[in-house]
Write a structure and sequence with these properties.
Blueprint lengths: L3 E8 L3 H12 L4 E5 L10 E3 L4 H6 L6 H4 E4 L3 E3 L15 E4 L1 H14 L3 E4 L7 E2 L5 E4 L7 E9 L11 E3 L5 E8 L9 E5 L2 E7 L5 E7 L1 H6 L5 H9 L13 E2 L3 E4 L3 E3 L3 E2 L2 E3 L5 E2 L7 H21 L4 H27 L9 H4 L23 E4 L4 E9 L2 E9 L9 E2 L2 E2 H5 L6 E2 H10 L6 H10 L3 E3 L5
Parallel strand pairs: 1-2, 1-10, 2-7, 5-13, 10-20
Antiparallel strand pairs: 3-6, 4-6, 8-9, 9-10, 11-18, 12-15, 12-16, 12-17, 13-14, 14-15, 18-21, 19-20, 22-27, 22-28, 23-24, 25-26
Bound molecules: flavin-adenine dinucleotide.
Length: about 475
């Protein structure tokens, strides 16, 4: 039987796999996407925030959003206090996603970009071929083998190419099920902190609702003979959001899954890459998992394209991807731990003590600069540095002068189309805000200096000084 031969194989057709396949094909690569499209956790709806729109734009999918997502009101959050938080009606609203429809839409986009899609499961671990490249065994009536030069693993929390993983937060277990309530329930998504974990609850279009209980896996083990259903219902009975609607409700089979935050020890090699949850899996509290999977998919495509185009750029491209995954993990553990520090009423409970952390490092929070006018002397902060770092420029990864500062999520080489190095040239010497803006206009760097100046001040990169020169 003839094998399928392609440049790149992507295993797993979730958000990470479909997006990387789509972007690679649009960059001119010959890609095969192999996914089982299995209904794993598919009944579980997921939230996405407005931050996902630029990524959907990149994939030409913003117009399709309505086909797989429903806009929802700001959530009812009971976190710091037992009562609900005040929410802003004008605040950005999120969406509730039907994952089956979303994943199908992403796979369609990949197919439309020229990707060969094979709907099947990869049973064995892919192996290296003596001639170079990879052999992937699949089970379809027509093909049995796929031969490729580059392998991308996007099979979610269970990567078929296992590189070892480290936890970035304590372990977290999710028990979830769909409920049919005896009477119409509230219409908002709800998030509520409980003594031994937290609950996420969402109303569905057909009048039912979905509830997920997040807890330490030890709680399940400690519960001995209790069935998973009993543990789940007992846990939820403490939630105000359920009120007294547990009585008379019907509940589907309760399922359990791992929801821990982990980072793979190695995310990329010279001819392979892990992407999405296979590389870095986040806790659902962030509601960022899908967004990060799409982001790594879009960036990962440029990394693989760079490696395949010019082997001498491979070390820089690999470094870029490794740094991205590590930065995502570091940001996530910092933000999640601060969030877990919120409910003060539970601060002595083991679940919360193991996770909470209050950021006391002032370097991570730039001090307010006070009022700045054209005569204020400004200078580059001593915490800021500029050096050559791997950056994503267009459709390649290359070395570029980039700015680093503790208040930034990662190195920044450009603000819009403007190179940061050009903006900060000469700022190790103090100069007035007026002189700086005029010099940016005079040298043709920008005609709208105030937005850029505000960004530097807000992030503490340019700081007022009393010392001239
Ligand atoms: C309980 C829970 C709640 C969550 N809630 C949210 C939320 O509200 N918002 C949010 O943004 N994120 C949420 N997440 C995270 C989000 O689901 C993931 O981050 C996201 O799905 C990662 O996408 P992925 O493509 O990397 O992996 P996946 O979505 O897991 O996709 C992997 C794909 O690979 C396929 N596959 C696996 N093995 C094989 C194989 N051997 N052969 C072929 N195909 C295979 C799978 O069937 C699947 O289609 C939640 C996670 C959990 C556990």
């Amino acid at each position: 039987m003839k094998p399928i031969i392609a440049e790149v194989a992507v295993l797993g057709a979730g958000p990470a796999g479909a997006s990387i396949a789509c972007r690679l094909a649009r960059l001119g690569r010959d890609v095969v996407l192999i996914g089982d499209g299995s209904p794993r956790r598919r009944a579980l709806p997921e939230s996405i925030s407005p931050g996902i729109h630029p990524l959907l734009d990149l994939l030409n999918l913003n117009d399709a959003l309505d086909t797989f997502a429903t806009e929802c009101d700001p959530p009812d959050v009971r976190w710091e206090e037992p009562g609900p938080l005040k929410y802003s009606v004008s605040g950005p609203s999120g969406h509730l996603v039907d994952r089956s429809k979303m994943d199908a839409c992403l796979v369609d986009a990949a197919r439309g970009a020229g990707v060969q899609v094979i709907a099947t499961r990869v049973g064995d671990v892919p192996t290296r071929r003596a001639e170079g490249g990879w052999l992937v065994r699949i089970a379809t009536p027509i093909f049995e083998e796929v031969h490729v030069g580059f392998l991308i693993v996007a099979t979610g929390r269970k990567p078929v190419l296992f590189q070892g993983r480290k936890r970035i937060m304590p372990p977290l277990l999710a028990l979830h099920s769909r409920w049919k309530l005896p009477y119409p329930a509230r219409t908002r998504i709800s998030v509520e902190a409980l003594r031994e974990g937290w609950v996420w609850w969402a109303p569905l279009a057909d009048g039912s609702c979905y509830a997920v209980a997040f807890m330490d896996p030890l709680l399940r083990r400690r519960s001995g003979q209790l069935s998973i259903e009993n543990i789940y219902v007992a846990f939820l009975s403490e939630a105000a959001v359920f009120g007294n609607c547990l009585n008379g409700s019907q509940i589907d089979k309760v399922r359990a899954c791992d929801a821990s935050a982990v980072l793979a020890n190695k995310v990329i090699g010279s001819d392979w890459m892990l992407v999405g949850d296979s590389a870095v899996a986040l806790e659902p509290i962030s509601a960022q998992g899908i967004q990060v999977a799409l982001k790594l998919g879009c960036q990962g495509a440029v990394v693989v394209h760079t490696i395949l185009s010019d082997v001498s750029s491979a070390p820089v491209a690999e470094m870029f991807y490794r740094d991205q995954c590590q930065a995502i993990a570091a940001r996530h553990s910092r933000a999640t731990a601060e969030f877990y520090a919120g409910p003060k009423r539970f601060r002595h409970e083991p679940f919360w003590m193991a996770r909470a952390f209050r950021n006391t490092n002032p370097a991570l929070r730039p001090a307010p600069t006070g009022s700045v006018d054209v005569t204020t002397l400004l200078r580059l902060s001593t915490d800021a540095s500029l050096r050559d770092l791997p950056c994503l420029i267009g459709d390649r990864i290359c070395l570029q002068m980039a700015l680093e500062h503790p208040s930034l999520d990662g190195p920044v080489s450009h603000l819009g189309n403007v190179a940061v190095a050009a903006l900060l040239r000469g700022t190790t010497q103090a100069q007035t805000a007026g002189e700086l803006c005029r010099s940016w206009i005079r040298t043709g760097i920008t005609e709208r200096p105030l937005t850029l100046l505000r960004w530097f001040l807000k992030n503490g990169i340019l700081a007022p000084t009393d010392v001239p020169g």
